[in-house]
């Protein structure tokens, strides 16, 4: 909220500076629409994204659309862009903005044209744009059918840029690297599992026996040959607690018996999660480290930890030299087995700014761009992951299951206050041995404020489009 206030105070200052932006860049355009009957006459549709790539067309597009250059996937994306241009009779280009998540809102408030589509992946960016009423509601556009959840993301994804039950951004969830993979998966060092003669976690997945107790009994209670500087589990507290909470199906907002939507700031599922985390640490502190640096999994990266908690795609990250297997966080007692909740901290979405002169055409471009890429890649999304990304086919299958049930965690809607409250109180409980319900009570007021302010107004949409459907299954 502080950013939004700053935007309002500084908006007037930007009127004079917004005209000094770098020239926008367009892809080559061939004025030859196809037989679809649509031709927008070569109108320019600009995608505005953050300026954090190299200064040439190829790497800018790779950064904005999240692909590696000189790959089949990169070729598929560029072919899709070219085909959409031809089909609709448009030019698609980009503009970039250094620190755009701060500057762009000021420009829009000043009435400046910043492009027709905005895409910012920084924490809280699209959420802030939506909260400040700088984007058109996605419900305005005939070309975007939000019921096509396979294409734009289900209600949990859209919740990341939703205000009062209205979604303001969508995400191309059928594109590789664009799925809402969550931040609270487990990955494990396959070599260490073998060296320590431990059961491969994938066996528990295949046998449908992956619970909190399974993890503790098999790995934390194991007599192993770990060296003094090695851990069975090493994770940052900033995501460990989210993994534990969501694996126990925490829900802060629900419908009561009278059909009213209410906030529950201290559900039993949280108390169970706190107690489980306290037990893991207090009973196994010689092999469990829950105090890694912020977002860090350095021990794991250096081959010093069997397990860590992180984003699912870290299992195949080129930045770590570890052969990794992927698993969900084990299932807690309040969760339904087989429904793998993942904490989801931001939408990496596309929205349409209110200063776009062609919002309907921009929506049509988004709709066409977001179609699955199977015809270009020659394989389905899951097959692509099996062949091109993960270490085993089972990892790819697990990944496809994990992306089904991400839960938006409102971390940045609350200015990170929720995350801080959770971490400070849970970690304090661990260190002091405080009772789980006492630890939970200390942040229940903060949870109540954040969920009442941000989540409760969205629950009408969420219940209609997600929870009621889930309960009907």
Mean pLDDT: 81
Low-pLDDT parts are 1-35
Largest sheet: 5 strands, mixed
Measured between the Cα atoms of the first and last residue, the distance is 38 Å
Rg, Å, rounded: 23 Å
Question: What class do helices, strands and sheet pairing give?
Answer: alpha/beta
Percent in helix: 40-55%
Question: Would you write up a description of this structure?
Answer:
The chain has 473 residues and is of the alpha/beta class. The chain has helices spanning 2-14, 57-65, 72-88, 100-109, 125-131, 149-152, 155-158, 190-195, 201-206, 212-220, 237-247, 268-284, 298-301, 359-369, 374-377, 381-388, 393-402, 417-432, 436-455, 459-472; strands at residues 25-26, 43-50, 90-97, 117-119, 162-163, 166-167, 185-189, 231-236, 253-255, 261-263, 288-292, 305-310, 324-327, 342-344, 350-351, 406-408. It has a five-stranded mixed beta sheet. Strands 11-8-12-7-13 form a five-stranded mixed beta sheet. The chain has a two-stranded antiparallel sheet with strand order 5-6. Helix 18 (417-432) packs antiparallel against helix 19. The longest helix has 20 residues, at 436-455. The protein starts with a helix and ends with a helix.
